[in-house]
Known about the structure:
- This protein is of the alpha/beta class.
- The protein has helices at residues 21-41, 51-63, 73-95, 130-140, 166-174, 207-217, 249-255, 263-276, 288-292; strands at 2-7, 43-48, 101-103, 107-109, 122-128, 143-147, 150-155, 157-158, 178-180, 187-191, 198-200, 204-205, 222-227, 232-234, 242-244, 246-247, 279-284, 298-300.
- A hairpin with a 7-residue loop joins strand 14 and strand 15.
Amino acid sequence: xxxxxxxxxxALLRRGERPDADVQRANTVRVATALAALAHEHELVVTxxxxxxxxxxxxxxxxxxxxxxxxxxxxxxxxxQGLIGTLLVxxxxxxxxxxxxxxLVTHTRVRVDDPAFDHPTGFVGPVYPERPARxxxxxxxxCMAEYRHGWRRVVPAxxxxxxxxxxxxxxxxxxGTVVVCAGGGGVPVACDWTTGELHAVxxxxxxxxxxxxxxxxxxxxxxxxxxxxxxxxxxxxxxxQRPVLDATPAELRDADYPQExxxxxxxxxARFVENTGRxxxxxxxxxxxxxxxGRSGTLVRPDLFVT
Length: 307
């Protein structure tokens, strides 16, 4: 079976943890251990979040006085793919001796007319007091938005159209390689249809939606979205909280999960199932093997799925 795994950012840097290299290195060992059994039995592609790492790199770049201007978001995203990719490759090789494992810096093609360009919502970088935020906005032409007790830069959060390197990933899978790719949703690019050139876009792409797009491009059998809770829940955090053990795409959308947490994961699972007729699931990292085998997590099935 061909499985695309979408790791939440908290799989690499859990809430409240310092973004030190040793902390992330230890967390990638936990990830590799959780995925090892699946990799022994199935073709495996691993995608991952990058929000904490991207924010750290953005803060460093903005504060670096040796630079004329901070690095653009697309290059920071590529940096984060390399950083996280090498940690995951080393950890996976440690639990899969003799197995080919590779990390690819991949791109995600987006539409130049995506409505998100007119309404930036993707937070990037640190929180600033109002005065420094206004200074940076004026100096670099950044869009800033209120965030908790301060201000942060916002960029367009775009919908993925295609992963240009999907064919390469497919070839590697057929060779028995575990592939780490599409980190942070991939580097967003727009295509010049007259020349075929890819042009960088100052934006971000949702990692879960990119994983769903990649899974569809690869004709994957299963999309596995891993996070820090064992199930999707209705009434999460309230006395009426209840686990959702299985759902159709329509049922996930009707539940209207929060966009800052479960919403993108539910939408990614719904899109993959709708577009392919195959299965997806959402659940906890440490239960990855059990989720695929129907013993944990929330199964997302086609509307006409028959048990």
